[in-house]
Structure formats: structure tokens, C-alpha cells
């Protein structure tokens, strides 16, 4: 496997990493037609990296069959226009089966969701990711890191065993901790993706990130691309202009412990007439007063 350098996958991570929503039909099923239309809108808008089965896609509310459907549908729609980073997780056999399914469907990478378990040891974190990475040595593997307790040395240890661990979606809301973790793990060894989207992208880029994830991109690909262009050129004042533009939208998503993270994105898409606002429990649609605010914010963007 040493001949595999994963250069195209690494380049795809150093970009706007879009997390598409999963639209639902009136009967509650996945609305495949609308899903395809939303994916085409992202691709036509210039997005080149997609994460089906991410948190903005309501990963934890989808059935195993729906997760496979979303993967296959995204691979079909993207073709050779985008790199795919498929979200996998849950128990180990499920995560490994999902990773192999992603590989067989034609994806290039998998993102491993933070293990949802009340007892996560640092060594066990390595074991979990190693088992998945070793099951799909052909794929780039990207841990989704939300655990502030994990030391950077553990990520380096994982990559020593698994050279296909090529990047990290870092989602601990602490820029100083990120800077230290990245240097402890190996700043140049991995592609560092700011996993808390546009609000954290400027501070994380200043510390070494070269890509960021986005749910907002579903609503306006141009806004997200404007931010990454500014960050790539080191123009932080321009990046912060975009930051101000999206600030209220992202504050609504982050309120109440991120309760409305997906809800606000789907509400914005509903305001644009692009999909239904429906989300699945434990998420919930916005109350009426906040719907109007979301619609007003989006109306102010050039979409």
C-alpha cells in the first residue's frame, strides 16, 4: 500500500467540504428526486468535495438502508465532478460494512464519526479507527474528532499503523487546543479540516487548517467559496467580512447546544423553495418567529 499516496484525496480535503442535507418527502421517506437536485445545485455551484451521511445529513436519524441509499445516490450524481467522503460510524461491524459499501459504490474516502459511547479511552479510540482503516486500505480515512481529551500523539500512532489515515475533521471548539493537537500529531502529516464550519474557519486556518466543513453551503455555495478563497490568499479581513455576513445564521444553528443545527439549514432551503423543512426527531422544525428571521437572513445573501 506504500505506493498509494492519496494526493487527490488530500487535495479534496483542503477545500470546502460540503455536508449535504438529506431531504424528506411528505411521507417521511428520503426524497431522492429533491436530493439529486440539491446535489446538482452544489456541484453546479462549484463544490468539489461532498460528505454524504454527515451530521447535516442527519446521519444518526437514518436507517442503515437509507444511509446506503444516500451514499449510492451521491456517487451517481457526483460522477467525476466531486470527491466523496462518506460518513460511517456506530458499532464497529456496522462502520466497517458502511466503509466497504462506500468503497464498492465508488467513494474515495470515509469520514469516521466520533464514537458514540459513554466510555471512550484514547487507546480504544485508536483501536476503533484502526479496525475501520485496515478494512478499507484503498480509501482515505478521516477521523471526525470531537473529543478534547484525545492527545495528538494518539492520532500519530493511528497513522503509523494505517497510512490511509490522511486527514482529520477537527471539531473541538478551541483554536488553541487545535493548534497544539495538530502540532503534536504532525502538522504536515495530515490535512486539517476545520470541522466546525465557517464560524471557526478563520481561526483554525491561522493555526494550520486548509479546509473546512460546511452545512451552510447547501444554502449558498458562493458564500462558502468566498470564504475559502479569502483564507487561501491569507486575506483575513475579507474572510471576516464573510464571517459577519453569516454570523447570525450560524448563531441560530448553534443555539441551545446546536439543537437547530440542521433545522436552520433546512428552513433556509424551504424559504428558497428547494426542499421541505422536515427534520427527524430528535431534531425539530423551527418555531414560526425564527422561520421569518432565517428567511430574512437568506434573502440578504446573493443566492
UniProtKB/TrEMBL annotation:
InterPro entries noted in UniProt: Aldolase_TIM, DapA-like
SUPFAM superfamilies named among the record's database cross-references: Aldolase
Keywords linked to the UniProt accession: Lyase
A Pfam family annotated for this UniProt entry: DHDPS
Family from the record: Belongs to the DapA family.
Protein name as annotated: Dihydrodipicolinate synthase family protein
Native organism: Streptomyces cinerochromogenes
